[in-house]
Amino acid sequence: MLDRAVDRKAVVITEVTPFYGGEDLARLRDPWGNIWWLYTPAAEGEDAVPPWEGGSTYGLDSLDEALRAIANSADH
């Protein structure tokens, strides 16, 4: 599904990454500016460690970067 969205001009904000709760998460921004959060059962069937417990901050950082870019583009 993510590949099809990119083929239709969506931009990936967060690559598929393990998310706590037994899911994988990806985020994309469609050509109209909507941000979509996509979840699927975790490929490995394991829970990711949340950032506040020492896990990866990639999921938070990628969203923060995208939202800051949107805010900065709106200012100009």
- Helix coverage percent: 25-40%
Biggest sheet, spatial arrangement of strands: 1-2-3
End-to-end Cα distance, whole Å, is 33 Å
User: Number of helical segments?
Assistant: 2
Number of strands: 3
Shape: flat
Mean pLDDT: 88
Largest sheet: 3 strands, antiparallel
List low-confidence stretches: none
Structural class: alpha+beta
Give the strand content: 25-35%
Q: Which value, in Å, is the CA radius of gyration?
A: 14 Å
Order of helices and strands: HEEEH
3D structure, described in words:
There is one protein chain. Helix content is 32%, strand content 30%. It has two helices and three strands; from the N terminus they run αβββα. It has helices spanning 2-7, 58-75, and strands spanning 11-19, 23-29, 35-41. It is flat, with a radius of gyration of 14 Å.
